[in-house]
Amino acid sequence: MAATPLSTPSTAARSTASPSTAAAMPGLSPQRIERALKLMVSDGRAAGVSAVVWQGGAERYFGAFGQSDVEARRPMTRDTLARIWSMTKPVASVALMRLWDEGRFRLDDPLSTYLPEFKSMRVAADERGGERPAQRPILVRDILRHTSGLTYDMEDSAADRAFRAAQPFEKSPDLASFSRAVAALPLRHEPGTAWHYGTSTDIVARLVEVLSGEPFDVHVRQRILQPLGMKETDWVQPADRRSRLAATYRFPAGEKPQREADMSFAFATGGAGLIAPMDDYLRFARMLLGEGALEGVRVLRPTTVRLMMTDQLDPALAPRHFMRSAGVGFGLGGSVRIAPALATEPPGVVGEFSWGGAASTLFWVDPANQLAVVFLVQKMPFDEQLHLELRRAIYG
């Protein structure tokens, strides 16, 4: 369908929608979704947004509004490429769980069985830099559910400061050296005793390399992206696609949007880095919704997908970093809703599997309603308010 312009003070916005004649989820309103997306742009909170809703075996809504590149006056469209940041993590987790399906490892194997650098881990014991030996090894299960004790530098603990000083991302030329650099750092907590977001999924990627005998990116392309028809998803985009890459912006109060410098990665990893168009990631989400299969292509066993989408955290496990809702747990590669959402939380359904990316992207799969949603935007820092509004628009 032809794009429909939307006038705003600073952007030209466009939309296309794909209605379906099949029965939709009760209460699903394309008009309500469209209003929410338009408002994100017209209010000046995002340069461009797009969302697709797949439900009951058909596309129920697609809309794209605003600009993917303000300076170039390029509209947000269906084929816009976006940095999906941590939405790379579910892809990496699926890659590892494929190898589990093949019997290559056990979830409760010590990680050091395959990555010896993790054999004698130490835990940050105090804020003065003291360390003590870890009481138990990191298990493969721990790196899939972020209970390993590995960290980023998101806070100011002794372990975070050690990570910041070591600069493993900046100083490592490949996943193997990154894994060794991370293993040399103190853990933030004892393995298995807390949920803390960190480099666990980057180590998932290194484990995929070791178990498969192939570079991580090569393995993912051949075993996941190509079989699923995700033709334009990759860590590096060819020159003829780069004009379609959306720019990332910050929105300081009372100021014009500030364009972020484009970021490059030294190596392909599991924690971030994939660049994808809307329809590619929708295919990945539909595969999960289809319990591991899409259009005759099986990536995972149905029981494996159900395991990934089941909460893996002991109810007594605490603290849980920024994942503080009592109604949300974590599976193997993404968050899992385990109780109905409160009125103060973004709407969601028990059994939902989801994750987002640093530039405010989001996807979720809702098996109860046979629903898959992908939301693309390129806004820093992470803006959960956009997710709240989109979810309210979809669930009503």
Helices, strands, pairings?
Elements: E1 6-7, E2 12-13, H1 30-42, E3 48-55, E4 58-69, E5 74-75, E6 81-83, H2 88-101, E7 122-124, E8 131-133, H3 140-145, H4 158-166, H5 168-171, H6 175-183, H7 200-212, H8 216-225, E9 249-250, E10 258-259, E11 275-277, H9 278-289, E12 293-294, E13 297-298, H10 302-308, E14 328-330, E15 335-337, E16 353-356, E17 362-366, E18 371-377, E19 379-380, H11 384-395
Parallel strand pairs: 9-19
Antiparallel strand pairs: 1-2, 3-4, 3-18, 4-5, 6-11, 7-8, 9-10, 12-13, 14-15, 15-16, 16-17, 17-18
Helix pairs in contact: 1-11, 2-7, 2-8
Strand content: 15-25%
N-end to C-end Cα span: 26 Å
Q: What is the count of β-strands?
A: 19
Radius of gyration: 21 Å
Helix and strand run: EEHEEEEHEEHHHHHHEEEHEEHEEEEEEH
Describe the structure.
This protein has 396 residues and is of the alpha+beta class. It is 28% helix and 18% strand. The protein has helices at 30-42, 88-101, 140-145, 158-166, 168-171, 175-183, 200-212, 216-225, 278-289, 302-308, 384-395; strands at residues 6-7, 12-13, 48-55, 58-69, 74-75, 81-83, 122-124, 131-133, 249-250, 258-259, 275-277, 293-294, 297-298, 328-330, 335-337, 353-356, 362-366, 371-377, 379-380. The longest helix has 14 residues, at 88-101. The radius of gyration is 21 Å and the shape is globular.
Q: What is this structure, in a nutshell?
A:
With 396 residues, the chain is α+β, with helices and mostly antiparallel strands.
